[in-house]
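re the bet — no i am not wrong, look at it urself. input seq straight from the record:
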Amino acid sequence: MPYSRQRRASRSGVALFFILATIVVISIIVYGMVFFMRGEVHLSENYVDGVSALLLAEAGVEESLFTMKRQMNDPKNPFYAMITKKEEGSVDIDLSNLEGKISGVQPILEGGKVKARISWKNDPTAVASLAAQGFPPDIARQGVLTIESRGTFHNSSKQVEVKKTLKAMQVASQIPGNAVGMIAPDHGLYLNTSQQDSFKIQPLDFWDPWGFTVTGGKVFMRDGARIDLPKWLMLTDLRRDLEHPWLDQGIGWNGFNGGGNLAKADSIEYQNAPVTRDYYKWMGLLHWPWWEEVKNENYDSVTKQVPAYEPKKINLYSADTYRQLANRLVDPQTTPSQSKYFTQVNFKEAFGTNQETYSNVIPLYGWGDWRKVPNKYSRYLGNPNRANDTTHAVEINGLTFIKGDVFLEGWVKGKGLLVVQGNIYVGGDVLTMPDDAGQQSSVGIIALRDPKMDTSVENPTTGRVIYQPHHDSDWSRAGITHPFINLSPRLEGCFFAQGGMELKTDSKMQKLINMEIVGNLVTDYFDRRRMPNDVSIKYYNWQEILAQSNYDYSVDKKTQWGTKYDVSIKKELVSWREVDATL
């Protein structure tokens, strides 16, 4: 019995040993598996972090390229200055938008960081090859652009180095050596030849003497003029240019109007003879007579002599030049079928009286029809007229050349020049309205002489802008005629009348007809006695509006290399590689 008990106890000890050994072995196996799995997880995390870092670095390259292409032609950008002025250098690129540091922009990868630098090195050999191809020296730069981008995600950093070829060329552009447009764009009034009595106040004209005012812009009179001063002008705009404005005496009975008010112009220029003022100057109590007529003083303190203006300097060209540049050409002499555009325009007052006829003209009538004016509550009881309908506006885009006479009146739109080799008859207001794109319109009116029909020396018969007002019995719904609006026409545009501007009417109200020009007036023949009563020119530079047109007004062109570089990056890669992180 004791032996059997001892034997069983011995067996129990062996079983315990085997159980403990099994547990140890299993623990070792489980620990090994856990250690191995942790290693695999760690390696997987490093791999993911490394791939993420590499992707961030590549994103930094693309973002750097995008940033460069967006700003590389901006002279204010440091990158532009480095490329165009230095042989080599580097610039750090701001990639904060990829990291989500800009408000409203999500990071490309949460927790990721990106850093990039662009380096540049000029290649003299490449520049020499460009010069060998015929490019002017010192206008081309070419070299290698290196983009180093480093992406960091958690504990992993990867860096990519990309090299590309970059070329910078100074911009070569064809600039207009000369261009048609607004004639004498700096001048409110430009006169080549003027009748010397144009600004004279007639002795017995005490009712409403002619007045002429220029506001803004320069005034040029090639052969000068002698301008009478009324008393009111001496006490106002010319007060500081006179020694005794209160004692000096003006010309004329009226004292308030007449002569010419050029004191509001930027300057007064002349070439051959000066522009002088005519008034009675106070000579002092000890002098007899107390007042003497003075005619040899400059008009004001800004009156000066200038060299002759060449025609090209004031945008003035021959008729053949305008014909060649025209995108619309009407000439019945060369194309007889175009004579159908010329017709007779007739206006009549109520009851068929006071008819006005414009014979053999192309009608450019920009007023509409009062019948087409939409009814509005504010206008329901009103009296709509032709001016309320803008659907018939005369469209002038580009350059229109017409050989023959033209009748012009009403709304105009577009950006362009109307060149007429003949006479232009203006029947009323010429007003600009926004074009179809909602932009400001601009019109230039150029009247040229026809040498085949007009051989006169002093009294041109063509090249004139003729204001010929008319009545219109169908002007409004109420049947009210159209007499009074034409007494003070408003002409918006730049006007060149080679043969002069004049008023043509037999109306008894001729003395009341005034004119306002918003733009400028240029003419080779100026005779104030043929023009409306009061003329007011308010200078406006329509050339700035004309320059916004996409029409090419260039007379001749020449190539000019500018000072600005056009920077471009070639698509081909020089190299792309992953390098050790150093940034």
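see?? Residues 2-71 form the longest helix (70 residues). told u. also The chain has six helices and 27 strands. so pay up
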